[in-house]
Amino acid sequence: MGLKKIVFILILSATSLILRASKIEGAFEALSIYDYFKAKNAFYSQVTKSAKTAACYGLATIFYRSDNPFHQLDSASKYISLAGNYHKLKHLKEVYFGFTIDSLAIRGLADSIARKSLEIAQKLSSITIYEKFLTANTFASQQLRQEVFYLRDELNYKAALSHNLSDSTQKNILRFPESFFINDYFILFDKQTFEEQTNSKTIDQYVAFIKKYPKNKFVFQAQDELFEIYKKNYTIQELDFFVKNFPGSHSVNEAWKLLYAISVQSYNTSELQNFMERYPEFPFKASINKEIELNNKLLIPVNDSDFIGFIDTSGKYAILPEYEEATSFKEGLAVVTKNDSTFFINKENTNIFNAFYTDAYPFNNGFAPVNIGGKWFLINRQGQKTVGPFEELSEQSENLYVIKQAGKYGAIDVYGAFVIQAQYDKLGDFKNGMAYYVSNNLYGFISKNGLGSKAKYQWISDFDEYKSAIVKYNNFYGIINKNDSLLLPPVYDLVIKASNNTFIVVRNNKYGFFDGKGCFISGIEYDFKKELPPHYYTNGKLFKLLKSFAYGRVVKQALMDANGRITLDYDSNQEVNFAQCGLIKVKRKGKYGFLDRKLNLVIPCKYDNALDFEDSLSICDLKSESILINLKGDLIFKTKGDIEKITPGYFWVKEEEGNLLLNKKGSTLYDRIESFQLSQDGFLILEFENKTKKILKL
């Protein structure tokens, strides 16, 4: 190429550059004086030329401004993005009529356009709008884009919540791994998986979920809900499975306590040791060891003035008398009352549950009824409420509790399951498998399996061991059996239960005897004395017959056997009693003596008063003395004071010189005794004049 030609091309190129520079400057000049029509056309003509960065910037400015008919934010976003991309290639700084085009200016305008666009996007607020914004505004500030990312992610997360399906949530996790809500997604996914896998809330579903998803964040909730089912079912097998398979559960300690409470009923040493052998991993071994230690410690409640304390077998106070009321220790605990609060103490005088009740009953087979604020509950030996609340709750009777709920009575077992629905106006305690109930002021009865009679009686007694009960109907008395069949029609003025399945039947102030098997032992022809107890009339084998003679001035007695044979006639004695220790107490001419079974007088009728023989001894009064005699009538002991039999083998002698305790041989065991008490645990407690105490096992 010749030199002239080269020079020509260079001149032409320079001229072209000058011309293009002149056009882009003219465009910005027009923009500076708000001649948007001219500026827009001029910029369009340069977007493919060498000044395309400036041209795109100028167009973005026109479309961004709202003082012209070309205002359009989508176009503004488009051209500022182009300007930014072109600038990246050359990194030139251009200045035209006061307009500087560089990276700072481009990002500033891009941010202004994005903020305006965001105002519109937020009004529409959809995932699509926000994603379109992010695509169109790539040169907006990172802070602004993060704000939009958050808004988009928030809508996505809300959508996932509304769908509430683990599959949908998992797709979002894969699609938006950098979402602001990624941690929430993972938690939501775990929650949805948990809910979907345990939708029926059955034991099998919970166990399968825990096994299949051990790292799921809701596995502990699954364990807790599984435990709640086991807690209601209250079975050793299920709790055993729980503590062995879920040792890390939040509920495992409570499960252990409940398993302990169910497995150990009487809390004796043998039971406790067996539990320890079966569950060496039990986390509360110290409590069992303490229980075993305390089991070997015998404490007996005693009254001391107005308060009750507990003494050990040496007669010394282990728990000082500080309680207004107290029961014996049962299953290792006693119910005590102090300052109008009732609670349970152990043998170390510790409020074992650290709780106070309005009222409480002793433990029975590991459960106790307690009243809290007027409502009744059952608690176990860990102090946990297992059943309730109820308006009323009885003591345990035949492994059932009578409860009152919503004004009606029913019965539950120790696990809280209704055996008899709460439907009656009143329900008695179960005895011999049966209980009476009251409905609309009439009595019926019901068994543990729900069978019974309709309410039609005015009254029903407890059922006896022969499954018989006395009923009142139309103001008369009769006897029924468990099938509501009449054993004795209700036509009598009174029916009284006696011993050995016999009844005293009264009509028109006359009495006779009825056998519970369905037949009369005697006619109803004897003179009834209502003040006399049932055992006065019969011991179940022999029957006392009372008849008035001489116009009622003289009442004579006879004895009859179950076959109706008179064994002692009326003319022989003023008073006759049933044989005790082979001897029959009789009264003749105002004095008492004893016959043998052949009706021979073996101890003369010389005593002013006499008690039936017990343990081969009788307490008699002779003139001014009280005496003990044996079966031969021999004198064993005599005193001018009083003799009282207080328990088999022991007699209390009250004398002016001091009180004595005798054995059945008439020997003085202890003297100078101030008082005695009989405990419910089978102990005789002696307090001496010097205030020391002595404990005797009965």
Structure description:
This protein is of the alpha+beta class. Among the domains are: 22-140; 641-698, Thrombin, subunit H (Beta Barrel). Helix content is 32%, strand content 32%. It has 16 helices and 45 strands. A 6-stranded antiparallel beta sheet has the order 40-41-42-43-44-45, with no helix packed on it. Strands 24, 25, 26, 27 and 28 form a 5-stranded antiparallel beta sheet that branches. It has a 4-stranded antiparallel beta sheet with strand order 9-10-11-12. α3 (52-64) packs parallel to α5 and α10 (203-212) packs antiparallel against α11. The longest helix has 30 residues, at 3-32. The chain is elongated and about 160 Å long. It starts with a helix and ends with a strand.
Class computed from helices, strands and strand pairing: alpha+beta
Helix count from the secondary structure assignment: 16
- The strand count comes to 45
Sheet with the most strands: spatial strand order? 40-41-42-43-44-45
Q: What's the story with the biggest beta sheet? A: 6 strands, antiparallel
Low-confidence stretches: 4-20
Q: Kindly report how far apart the N and C termini lie.
A: 142 Å
